[in-house]
Design goal:
This protein is mostly helical and 73 residues long. It contains 5 helices and no strands. It has one domain. The longest helix has 15 residues.
Length: 73
């Protein structure tokens, strides 16, 4: 049941963030917003993103940029 709630929340946020379908930026922003509520493993599975790709993105973007860009998502 919790996984289904995570799936619904993910889809709502990912689609609402993009005007031209679901973009990679929308996926990253959605995962960042929902990772406090749902297990990261579930979110990555729903987004069809590998853990390696996710952590590669997190390494490339400094923490202060991610913190300041929450309004940009």
């Amino acid at each position: 049941m919790a996984y289904l709630k995570a799936e619904i929340a993910y889809l709502k946020k990912a689609v609402s963030k993009s005007t031209r379908g679901v973009t990679s930026k929308a996926i990253r922003c959605t995962i960042e917003e929902l990772r406090q509520e749902y297990p990261l493993k579930w979110l990555l599975q729903l987004a069809d993103v590998s853990r390696a790709d996710y952590y590669k993105w997190r390494r490339e973007v400094p923490r202060w940029v991610r913190a300041n860009s929450k309004n940009d998502c």
